Amino acid sequence: MWEARYREISRRFWFSPRSERLAPAVLSSLLGEDYVRFDCLEEMFRGARVAVVGPMWLGRGPDADVLMVPDEVASKRHLRPDVVLTDLDGDFRALKEAEMRGAVIGIHAHGDNIPSLRRFVPAFRRRFGTCQCNPRENVYLFGGFTDGDRCAFMAAALGAARVDIYGFDFSFPLPKRGKSRARKALKLMYARLLLRDLRALGYDVRVHPSSQER
Question: Dihedrals φ, ψ of 189, to 5°?
Fold first, then answer.
């Protein structure tokens, strides 16, 4: 399922096939043998209630066994995430602080962030790699495209019993500084489609108000 969506996304966003294949290889070489193993992640997630919290969430962490956030939420000091997913375009200091508070950092490789991988990956210790294609033993392919749906795909792939998503608006594009609103809107469209794909496969994925996707 993810492979078909990825091919479609690659065409729509004009991804460079060469760079997309290269990025996981670069990340793999940077991680070496110093990474969180798949079985350790599976032990954390198997049978768990997982909460994925986005940038619009204002409260403390929801009641859950595992709390996941994208990198732009790592700076919220009232949250203590168990896992932070990042493609290294966020606040590096916030990521390091989250790691120091106990979070595992999932570093995502794609064709546009190879320089950031080389610059920042060595700074993390509690880390693992993810990718969109061309996985390696130490770089996992869970699926997912945007921050919220990538977290959901990872949780589902690792055997979570339920995934609750809070604090995302999958309808109204708010791009990061310097980014295109039209491109962000297209990303959100795919996020909605991918979350529907997960539910169609039988995974218990629930998107809550303030991020309600219909």
Answer: -60, -45
C-alpha 116/C-alpha 191 separation (Å) is 24
Q: If you average pLDDT over residues 116-128, what whole number do you get?
A: 98
Q: How many residues does the chain have?
A: 214
Mean of the per-residue pLDDT values of the chain: 92
Residues 143 and 111: their CA atoms lie apart, in Å, by 15
- pLDDT value, residue 173: 56
CA distance 193 to 75: 28
HSE (side-chain half, CA atoms, 13 Å) at 60: 3
Per-residue pLDDT tens over the stretch 82-115: 999 999 998 999 999 999 999 999 999 999 999 9
45 and 155 Cβ atoms separated by less than 8 Å:
yes
For residue 53, the tally of other CB atoms under 10 A from its CB is: 27
Instruction: Enter the pTM of the model.
Output: 0.93
Q: Where does the chain have alpha helices with state H?
A: 2-13, 17-31, 38-45, 92-100, 114-120, 147-157, 181-200
CA–CA gap between residue 52 and residue 191 (Å, rounded): 14
> pLDDT tier at 211 (50, 70, 90 boundaries)?
very low
* Torsion from C-alpha of 110, 29, 39, 151, nearest 10 degrees: -20
Q: Which residues make beta-bridge pairs with 140?
A: 130
